[in-house]
């Protein structure tokens, strides 16, 4: 009975059995056809990996050698801008740079020399104990001949079992004063640092200058020597010409760098060498990265072929289970994510609605607050002005009417163009400056073109900040209040001298700043801020794009 049911179910689902058998047959046939191609594909893949490794090593070399050249570049800028500085200031900056340079682990000596009419006026050495170095530099400086106004020396010197990369920059000023700045890089010490810092596998790195003199090599006996064996089949000229000078950097013409097979003098193995060029300062460097072929190609290919069959079989075995499980999981997650998204969207809409309603409510509170107080103070000022200056009092009345027309004007939303807000601010400031006389000074500084005037800001934002400054600061003839409104391309800066009143106003509830904060929060702009900096209250008002 049970065997009968088994064969019945098997007959019912036999199509799935046939499909499974067919898939298994296809898998093994496909595997046998694909396996011969794995070697070529793997080699191409490893070539790509090597290319990425090469670029990584080039970036490391460029970074480290630019660090070594950093002090010289900084000194060049200081000397080239010397016309704008006093002699004493220039001297101090160069001495500071010289002291800073020797903080580098591979730089042991630095110097600064200032001469006047070919006679040494002053020479400073960072390593004051090395008399031989000082004497050598003094002789060298006397031998420098100026063809142009400045001279750049970047040379390699081998002495006393050391290899030194000497860098010197000299410039003759219009008054015939000559300034020298230089330092020595210990290339052996630099290699020690480089090898300890970058211990990754994937080939070894050799660096030479444009003349083929080695400046970086895992075997230090080659450092400082010309290594012609690296350029037997690919010449230095070919390597340098294979790069284009773009924006100050050397970029290869082709995607792939120059490469060649050779026997490594360092490893004693067949290696694949890649040649490329980088630029540090004004000098190109040749970077040569050697990858052992047996390790990086043959052995890797065999390992991939060995594991391919196992990986493929396991992948096929688990495919059906994973497919079933993933479909169930995806369905469950889809339903859950749909609910979360609906709830999130609902919360966002509720939050935006609350923020907008809150901003509009605070704007209405702000307008109600401005009307009685401002009107009362303005009428008092007008009362005094009528007898003193009738003509000015007429202008005062017109400006006051324009201000209240602007305040009472109905508009959609709470955004206004910068142009309209500035026009209103000028009218408002006119009234306030008459009220406070010379104790209040408001300046509007526009650093932009007319296009910026069409951008949007919160309604009454500039007036709010000016009124806030008037309300919370002392305003006297001895301590006048100075307010600057600076128009920039991306934001407006409003700042005033910060002299807070000893007794705060009783009706001070920060409605204005809260209104601005809520408005920017509604538009999801986080760059609005207020802070006190160096005795000034500063507010940054970003522009707003309407939703």
UniProtKB/TrEMBL annotation:
<protein>
    <submittedName>
        <fullName>Histidine kinase</fullName>
    </submittedName>
</protein>
<feature type="transmembrane region" description="Helical">
    <location>
        <begin position="307"/>
        <end position="325"/>
    </location>
</feature>
<keyword id="KW-0472">Membrane</keyword>
<dbReference type="GO" id="GO:0000155">
    <property type="term" value="F:phosphorelay sensor kinase activity"/>
</dbReference>
<feature type="domain" description="Signal transduction histidine kinase internal region">
    <location>
        <begin position="362"/>
        <end position="439"/>
    </location>
</feature>
<dbReference type="Pfam" id="PF06580">
    <property type="entry name" value="His_kinase"/>
</dbReference>
<dbReference type="GO" id="GO:0016020">
    <property type="term" value="C:membrane"/>
</dbReference>
<dbReference type="InterPro" id="IPR050640">
    <property type="entry name" value="Bact_2-comp_sensor_kinase"/>
</dbReference>
<dbReference type="InterPro" id="IPR010559">
    <property type="entry name" value="Sig_transdc_His_kin_internal"/>
</dbReference>
<keyword id="KW-1133">Transmembrane helix</keyword>
<keyword id="KW-0812">Transmembrane</keyword>
<keyword id="KW-0808">Transferase</keyword>
<feature type="transmembrane region" description="Helical">
    <location>
        <begin position="16"/>
        <end position="34"/>
    </location>
</feature>
<keyword id="KW-0418">Kinase</keyword>
